[in-house]
Amino acid sequence: MQRFVGENLLKAAHRTTIYASQYDKAIELTDIIFASRRRLGTLAVKDFSPKMKQGLAKLPNVQFIECKVSGWLLSHSYVFTHPAALSDLILVLRDRRDPGAANGRPLRQRAEGIWELTDDYLAR
Questions:
Q1: Of 12, 48, 64, 71, whose CB count within 10 A is highest?
Q2: In which region does residue 100 sit, left (phi positive, over 0), alpha (psi from -120 to 50) or beta (all else)?
């Protein structure tokens, strides 16, 4: 998060969509190797303090999506191999859709700017 702010990355794109999973073992391994703190890609909604949620709410071009999907190989691959995650990613990149069922992206909103993607995404 410090790099996003420090390097002004939030203004680099029209939209910044962050897919994260607390089960991403590739990022967890990187944390161990480099003795670092938790990385952005492994955060969960429960990790956001009220102040962080308020800050994210002030950034309308940033969406944090916690991926709670099953059946993948415990790495970054879930974004490209899980049908729900890949479908959402396509809608972001190809159609530039905002999150929410009204926009064709049936994510569950957990807080302003914070969304949840689950296995039943395609059914919704």
A1: 64
A2: left
pTM: 0.79
Tokens coding 86: 């890949």
Which residues, in sequence order, are CB contacts of 48 under 8 Å at separation 6+? Answer: 56, 111, 114
Structure tokens at 85: 């995650």
What does the alpha-carbon distance between residue 46 and residue 57 come to, in Å, rounded to a whole number?
A: 16
pLDDT in tens, 51-106: 888 888 888 888 999 999 887 666 677 788 889 999 999 999 999 999 999 999 99
Characterize 58-93 residue by residue with b for buried, 16 or more Cβ atoms within 10 angstroms of its Cβ, and e for exposed. eeeebbbbbbbbeebeebbebbeebebbebbbebbe
| CB 40 within 8 Å of CB 1 | yes
The DSSP secondary-structure symbol of 95 reads: T
Is the pLDDT score of 31 beyond 90? Answer: no
